Amino acid sequence: MGRLLIIGCGGVAGVAIHKCCQNSKTFSEICIASRTKAKCDALKEKLEGTTDTKITTAQVDADKVEELVALIRSYQPDAVLNVALPYQDLTIMEACLECKVDYIDTANYEPEDTDDPEWRAIYEKRCKEAGFTAYFDYSWQWAYRERFKEAGITALLGSGFDPGVTSVFTAYAMKHYFDQIDTIDILDCNGGDHGYPFATNFNPEINLREVSANGSYWENGHWVETEPMEIKREYNFPQVGEKDMYLLHHEEIESLAKNVPGVKRIRFFMTFGQSYLTHMKCLENVGMLSTSPINYEGREIVPIQFLKALLPDPASLGPRTVGKTNIGCIFTGKKDGKEKTIYIYNVCDHQECYKEVGSQAISYTTGVPAMIGAALVVDKVWDKDGVFNIEEFDPDPFMDMLNQYGLPWVVDEDPQIVE
Ligand code: NDP
C-alpha cells in the first residue's frame, strides 16, 4: 500500500507507469505530474479500468522547487519517482528534502545550459581534478548526502537500465560470484530497427549529447579519456548477432569505480550503425547539436532543441521498431583463488514490449527498473538514510523483480570477452 508521485510523462515514464499499475499491491495510488498535463490525462484514461491502482494527474514545472513542494505537500506521496529529464534532478531532490520524502531517479544531473558561467567554473575545475569532460557527473547529487541523511530519507540514484540494472548486475556478481572483481565491461546493444534514416531511442537532446562527447574509461585508479568514437570493437551478442560497438563515457562508471573495491578497469560500449554515426557527425559539423542559443530572425533558438522538434518522438517508435536489445556486463576476477569470467545480460524484444505496454524496448528497459527501484523504496525493502547509487543496496530482491516484471536475465559462465 503506497502512494507514488511520478514526475514526467515521456517514453520512460509511460512504461514505469504501466508497470506501477501491474503492481497495485505496492502502488495503490499514483499521481502522474508533468509539464504537459494532457499527456498525463491521456495515459490515465488508457490505464483506468485495467488496474486497481488509483491514478490522479497534475501539472507541474519541475524546474521550480516551490511548485514541486506545493504538489508534494498536497499529494503526500511516500516517494517521488523522477522520470523527467536530468535537468530537473536537483530541483526535485531539493523539494523532496523540504518535504522529507524519498527520491528515485534514472539519470544523473546535467545542466540544461552548459554556458552558464557559474556552472561552467565548477565544471572546468572538476574536469581538471577528476580527468573526464562529460557534462554530467554525480558530484551535484552526492553533495546532498548529509542533508538526506539528517532528514532521514532515501535518495536512490540511477534506477534505469544503465545505470541501474547494469549496476545491480555488478552488485549481484560481487555478492554471489566473485571475491574480487578486476574488470567490468558494460555492453549496451540495440539490435532494433525503426526504419527511419535517423532517430534517437530516448530523449534526443540527452542522447546526442552523450554520444557526441569524448569517451572515457576507468583504469588503475584514474580516468582515461578518448576522442568520441575512437575505440571500436566487434561483439557477437547472444540473440542479436555481430555488431560494431564504441567506447563511451557513461555515468555508472563513476559510481562503480567507488563502490567496487579494487576494480582495475571499467569500460562502457554501445552499438551504433554506420548510418546513425554519419547523420550524427553531419549534424554536429553544421552546429545542430549545439546547446548554445542563437538568434534566428529575431527569436532565440537552441539548435539541439530545434533538432529535437524535427526528429521522431522516441515514444512514437514503438510500433515500427523490430529486433532485440541485449544489455549486460562482463566481469573478470577471482573466486576462491581461481580466475573467473561471467557475463550477465538481459535480452529484450522491441515488438514484445510494444504489445505489452505500447513502447519500444529502450523505454521498456528503463521504465521497468524505475518501477522496481521505486517499489523497493516504497516497500522499505531498501531503506537507508542518505544518497545512494543503486549498487549500494542488496541486489537480490531487485534481480527477482526483474524476472517477475519482464526483464529476465542470464548468467553465462563462459562468454566471449572484449579485447
Ligand atoms: P522524454 O523526453 O520522453 O520525457 C521527458 C518527460 O519529462 C516529458 O514528459 C516532459 O514533458 C517532462 N519534462 C521535461 N521538463 C519538465 C519540467 N520542467 N517539468 C515537468 N516535466 C518536465 O524522456 P525519456 O522518457 O526518454 O527519458 C526520461 C529520463 O530517463 C531522462 O532523464 C533520461 O536521461 C533517462 N533515461 C535513463 C536511462 C537509463 O538506462 N538509466 C535510459 C534512457 C533514459 P513534456 O511532455 O511536456 O515534454
Describe what this molecule looks like in 3D.
It is a single chain. The chain has 419 residues and is α/β, with parallel strands linked by helices. It has two domains: 2-157, NAD(P)-binding Rossmann-like Domain (Rossmann fold, 3-Layer(aba) Sandwich); 165-359, Dihydrodipicolinate Reductase, domain 2. It has 15 helices and 18 strands. The chain has helices at residues 11-22, 37-47, 65-75, 89-99, 117-130, 139-142, 145-151, 165-176, 204-212, 251-259, 274-285, 303-310, 350-357, 361-378, 395-404, and strands at residues 2-7, 27-34, 54-59, 79-82, 102-105, 154-157, 180-190, 215-219, 222-226, 232-237, 241-247, 265-271, 294-296, 299-301, 324-335, 338-349, 386-389, 409-412. The strands form three sheets. Strands 7, 8, 9, 10, 11, 12, 15, 16 and 18 form a nine-stranded mixed β-sheet that branches. A hairpin with a 3-residue loop joins β10 (232-237) and β11 (241-247). The longest helix has 18 residues, at 361-378. The model has no long low-confidence stretch (mean pLDDT 96). NADPH dihydro-nicotinamide-adenine-dinucleotide phosphate (NDP) is lined by residues 8-13, 34-36, 39, 60-63, 83-86, 88, 106-107, 160-164, 202-203, 206, 314-315, 366.
